[in-house]
What does this fold into?
Amino acid sequence: MTLGPGDEDLVKVAALARQRAHAPYSSYKVGAAIRTGRNKVHAGANVENASYGLTVCAERTAVFAAVNAGDTKLDAIAIVIDDDRLPSPCGACRQVLAEFNPGMRVVLATTGGLRKATTLTELLPDPFLPENLS
Ligand code: THU
It folds into this structure.
């Protein structure tokens, strides 16, 4: 999928967020930025902990920032790493993103200029959704 209008702006915000990552254990810094239905942007970075299992990924940090600001209509997410390959959001983050929009646009990027636009439908074809509970 080709990059659309606004994708590059979202990548820029995610790259800035990445600089705030707390990743002293893995040194793998990730930034994420989410664009909402009312065109607001919420960002996040991964936050690691000396008790390793308590680490929270960048994508979930950004989702939680959006929801805590009152935004639950999430249209797109950009994810940025500094690597020679594109990022791949973990399964837990895919599921958390699907809660708010299973068809969300996903823009994968590196600080070096690699880009790929895809969708959450592509990354997580059969998510567990709120309607599964009814
Ligand atoms: N990480 C993310 O922030 N997002 C992902 O989708 C994959 C992994 C973080 C968690 C941890 O701080 C580091 O990357 C290495 O796993």
